[in-house]
Fold these 2 entries.
Entry 1:
Amino acid sequence: MQSLNTIIVGAGARSIAFCKYIKNNPDITCLSAVVDTNLEKAQALINHFDINCLVTADLDLALTKADVLLIATPDFAHVQPTITAIKAGKHVYIEKPLATTVEDCNLIINAAKNCNTVCYLGFNMRHSAIHERIHELVHSGALGKVTTIEANEWYYGGRTYFRRWNRLRKFGGGLWLTKACHDFDLLMWIAGQKPVSIYANSGLSHYKKKTGVGPRCRDCVLKSSCHDYYDINKPIEHWFDEAWRKLQLKMDQSGSMSPDICLYNSDKDTFDNGIAVIEFENDIRATYTVNVLSAKTTRQIRVIGTDAVVEGATESGLITLTERHSCRKTLIDVNNANSGTHNGADQKILTDFFTICRNGGNPRSSLIDGKMAVQLSLAATLSDDEKRVVTFDDLKVLSKFEAQL
Ligand SMILES: NC(=O)c1ccc[n+]([C@@H]2O[C@H](COP(=O)([O-])OP(=O)(O)OC[C@H]3O[C@@H](n4cnc5c(N)ncnc54)[C@H](O)[C@@H]3O)[C@@H](O)[C@H]2O)c1
């Protein structure tokens, strides 16, 4: 069978994982173009993977070569290329979050109505072995009636957000959106219910302004003692970080988006740790903690039902199911499917996407799932800003909030 022609839109960190997949799966897909406003970065991406294809800033030109598109521009910039791709009748994989406003979500959803193309929302976390298995156990009824869910995301690498577009709401909506949309989606998927309300609270506890440092690591007087020092000219052993460093060398090195801008003194309007409490329909409550100051990187989840509790973590690859009445414990080890970028989830979601493009079927995460996560993320941001509980379907309030972004 002929391999599908893919276009990547946005040659950044995310597209490194896409290129690795494409390089490893020539029977499934081949790269026919990379579209980016920064042509040098796009060229560096394909050079790194030794791929030869069109590099252009012109999406319309690239479209003539495409069967499918992978959209990996910054969050606020998903809407235009996605609509263009759908209108051209191409299959499209859209990185999370679907968009940064409900209005943009609706524009994409409306463009997709009556179109016969696959629109797959890139919630890769639904494909990690830990989350898949926990979802399966909950929905098999093994836990009885679900009562509470606790989810934690601790992300050591998340500090780099404060060097990147993710630190500004105008580009990524803030961490409740660009980061937490993954986990809000997971919670809704596992609960299998709609959220009713949310209360969120966060703080910028560590990456605050300091005097006499920065503006970039390369200029900084504290470079020899700062734990966050990043030498952009020094090769890195880890394959992903090294590929990313090479791309960052092609970015503007001087302005506020310089890749080694000071994590402390960069302008930002988001937080480094936060907690949200969500109430779902059917008497289910959940908490979610996000913390980018943690020494380790993991996602942990615990679901307590009336018959059993299930708990698992991505860094251990282990799940424990404890039955309430017998106290019997079952250990489930998913380590045979827990490696690769995002614990193997990237490989699985892309294979699912390409399979559906070929053979038909429904994406595990749809445009509507994408919009729901955006709505819950925006509700969390509003709650955090106004220090009050926000009801999920308070769309009037959400529209007002969007206007302020
Ligand atoms: N699912 C995941 O686990 C995961 C992980 C990381 C990032 N992401 C998502 O992937 C997307 C990309 O993030 P990233 O970290 O790779 O960002 P990035 O900044 O590293 O790369 C984005 C690229 O898009 C280019 N670009 C900007 N506007 C463009 C436009 N209009 N047309 C073409 N190119 C444009 C930029 O020049 C840049 O090269 C974001 O939506 C992010 O939230 C998802």
Entry 2:
Amino acid sequence: MEVALYHPEHGYYEHRPNVVGRQGDFYTSVSVGRLFGELLAFQSAEWFDELDARNSAREPLQIVEAGAHDGRLAEDVLVWLQRHRPVLWDHLEYWIIEPSARRRAWQGDRLRAFAPKVRWFNAWEDLPATGVRGIIFANELLDAFPVHRLAWNQATGRWIEWGVTTAEGGFVWTPLPELHPAVTELADPAAALGDMDASERQTAWLAIAPLLPDGFIIERAPTALHWWTAAASRLKHGWLWTLDYGHRTGVSLNPAKPHGTLRAYRNHQLVEELLAAPGTQDLTAHVDFAAVASAGERSGLTTVELAEQSRVFTRIAQRAMQTPGIFGEWTRERTRQFQTLTHPDHLGGSFTALVQSRA
Ligand SMILES: C[S@@+](CC[C@H](N)C(=O)[O-])C[C@H]1O[C@@H](n2cnc3c(N)ncnc32)[C@H](O)[C@@H]1O
């Protein structure tokens, strides 16, 4: 998955900027239109006002985005903040965490007008030691991290990890001799139940294990958890938030998904064969939000919100509409975009917002 998506030459996300949106393979909230970024900017400004109440020296504040792709969200946020919050604008910086030189170039092209405000970093380790005072944000990033794919073996009562190998001119799944060290916590099969206290987990596992079908598949994304922990450790004061689709509760043993949640998309269609045409189709898996939230809490953050995108964005929009002088006119176009972002049949039903903060 890592190679198929991120190989510097052949990786899916390295080919072309327009894989997101109508011309591409899938929609994200960013591709719905400017409203997503505008509401995000409005919420960010409210949070910055809280920080600024204790920032009389007007120290710089940052928005840090990761997974910025072609820079579209950054542009929507920056345009809104420049136009509507000039005082805040003066001491605001926009940082982008971007390991790919090619994507940095796409972002640089789009954000040329904001050049003095925007700074790029390869990875969390490259940030100034002072860290981040402000907001760290990622939309649909964690679902794009590589996952380990594990299948339940009823005969042995253990999880087996699926790897990928070549055969007959193509790629095929193959069971690995042992679990990768990154997922060894699953050596205790009950660990698949997620964060619970030990006795609760044991009781639940005794009830569930006999019912778990042979070959039942789950995914684990340790790199997503490491990423969140690294982000949390750089946040000195402020908020860390992400929007994505995934499990909100701790249990990733979803009876409705016996084949797991790893999916491939091309031209807005689900592609059955995950291993077909690597580098030309997106690969994505559900985010385990409970595990991500726990990782943040272990790094000292407080969970402010773990809820449907629709609920969170409805509240932001309500406040935005009550302050028309700042938010501008609520046009028909904004209404249409708002419905797409929040209606349960569109993005509102499937997406979750996780917001954590460090006081
Ligand atoms: C599903 S796309 C979402 C793009 C955009 N945020 C949106 O919502 O339209 C995921 C993006 O995250 C990028 N990405 C993956 N791993 C990353 C990492 N470690 N740091 C920064 N970006 C990453 C991918 O290259 C891709 O551009």
